[in-house]
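Quick one - first record:
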Amino acid sequence: MMKRFFAYLLIISGLLCFYPFSVHADDGEEWSKYLDVYNDGGLDRPVAAQDYNKAVETLKNMRKKKSKKHTPPVPHTQNAPIKAENSNIIRIDNDLYYDNNIIPSGFYKIVVKNENDEYFVKFYQGKQSILSVQAQKIKHTDFSPEKVTALETKIIDNKYYKIMYKNIDVAICAYLAIMNK
């Protein structure tokens, strides 16, 4: 084993001894190739103000195009709830109060449950039930007629938050008080 090690060491050192190293002034020519590439690329010159402004404008245009693609328009007015299309998810802007319970502002999934001929509007965040509010039956004519199932919300006199739900069988509504800030 040691013989192989010394044999490899001898071969490597022999190759290194006979490798043609040049330590002459001619080595400057090899480095001049890299220097020429550096100079030809204009890497050593300062950036002109015109070039800088052009680059900044290009970046701004790219950001505008990117932001237009990724931000959907949100129709929103102050203190008006937002409801996602074709779902029972609503956003409440103000804290609500019902039966000594507070519903903080945020996004909620609304589920309507029928228990012993009484209807309840349940507020969920994720899988957690936040509150169950007893609702009362109303006429179907209070809703837009083109929808079979609908969930609508209204703010009444900045004091009450009205949630209305209808399907083929029933139409209900529930009222919650808006907490003043």
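second record:
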Amino acid sequence: MATVIINESTPQGKQYLKYTRTLPFATVKREKRKPKTVWQQAIDEGAVTVDEFVAEAKRQIREHYRNA
């Protein structure tokens, strides 16, 4: 037995899955994915940690008053 992982978001992947399902000796099983946590979604979208945010805010405040 072998396991093959196919990215079905591409046209080639969809075509390969469609073909594989027609084979009498092959079984296609969908991968069960855990939903992303809110924290992981935020990180994926470019969120920063509190420490990074505070450091950047302080830097911008210093720069603003230095140039005033």
